[in-house]
Amino acid sequence: MAPTAKRGGFANDPDHKYNANDVVLAKIKGFPAWPGIVMDDANVPSAVREERPASKSAALYTIRFFPAADYHWAPARDLNPLSSEDIEAFLGSTQKKSGELVKAYKIARDPRVWNEQMNKVVKEAEEEEESDRKRKPRSGPARKSEPKKQRVESEAKLDEAPATREETEDEMDPQTRKVREWRHKLQRAFLNKDGVIVAEDMKNQDETFKIVEAYTEMTPEQLRATKIGKVMRRIHQLGEVPRDDEFHFKSRAGELMNRWSAILGAH
């Protein structure tokens, strides 16, 4: 079990003031207390900010959790400062040498580089969405104005631009075509034009995720040609996903983003 941070007398202090970049332990119903970092709004995806619940009784802090970079809002009473002593105490006492919670504590030792990478991912995603909005009027003949549709639909359109010559199917190698097939399956399930995610289909999508997660030969060329990373980023930023408490699609998408960012960063 994770240690409770008591140093400084702030254990579950509802009046304690937290600042951006503070490393904390957050209490979430149904989960062990989990390490994360307090975020400022400038580095939080706009889609996530829109989901922020209203609270009149207490200030809510935005927490970015390690290692999947998913988000949670918590009042001070559900947070504890996480010191280096607490981190080492947990890592020294746990019998597990791997797993998500262990990864989270290891990142918490010094999350600066990890957090900067996540901030970069958020910034690039926001810039792509802004660029896409600006390009839309030039993408075809003028259309009659349409009612504003759900965010899920606009996200699904991000990858609908025609492929460049280098990305045509005839010129893709078989494995790259398979990666693109995975992208299409996930896009249809989570980012379809109707904006509806079918709960009964989530078991099938869990199998698709397992196939993608098991693929260890992803290359920078495959990522660029298939744009599967964009789809994972949109899934990671979705508000509500059916059965996500069972299959953890959003956090898994975040982990794949981290893995692929490392691949791109190495080339």
What's the short version?
It comes from Malassezia vespertilionis. The chain has 267 residues and is α+β, with helices and mostly antiparallel strands.
Q: What topology emerges from the helices and strands here?
A:
Layout: E1 23-26, E2 34-39, H1 46-50, E3 61-65, E4 71-74, E5 79-81, H2 84-93, H3 100-108, H4 112-135, H5 151-156, H6 174-190, H7 202-214, H8 220-226, H9 228-237, H10 244-247, H11 249-265
Antiparallel strand pairs: 1-2, 1-5, 2-3, 3-4
Mean pLDDT: 81
Strands of the biggest beta sheet: in what spatial order?
4-3-2-1-5
Radius of gyration: 20 Å
Total helical segments = 11
Shape: globular
What proportion strand?
Answer: 5-15%
Number of domains: 2
Account of the 3D structure:
- This is PWWP domain-containing protein.
- Residues 20-85 form the PWWP domain.
- It is a single chain.
- The protein is of the alpha+beta class and 267 residues long.
- The chain has two domains: 7-114, SH3 type barrels; 149-265, no CATH class.
- The protein is built from eleven helices and five strands, in the order E-E-H-E-E-E-H-H-H-H-H-H-H-H-H-H.
- The chain has helices at residues 46-50, 84-93, 100-108, 112-135, 151-156, 174-190, 202-214, 220-226, 228-237, 244-247, 249-265, and strands spanning 23-26, 34-39, 61-65, 71-74, 79-81.
- Strands 4-3-2-1-5 form a five-stranded antiparallel sheet, with helices on one face.
- Helix 6 packs antiparallel against helix 7 and helix 6 (174-190) packs parallel to helix 9.
- The protein starts with 22 loop residues before the first strand and ends with a helix.
- 30% of the residues are buried.
- Residues 1-10 and 142-166 have low confidence and may be disordered.
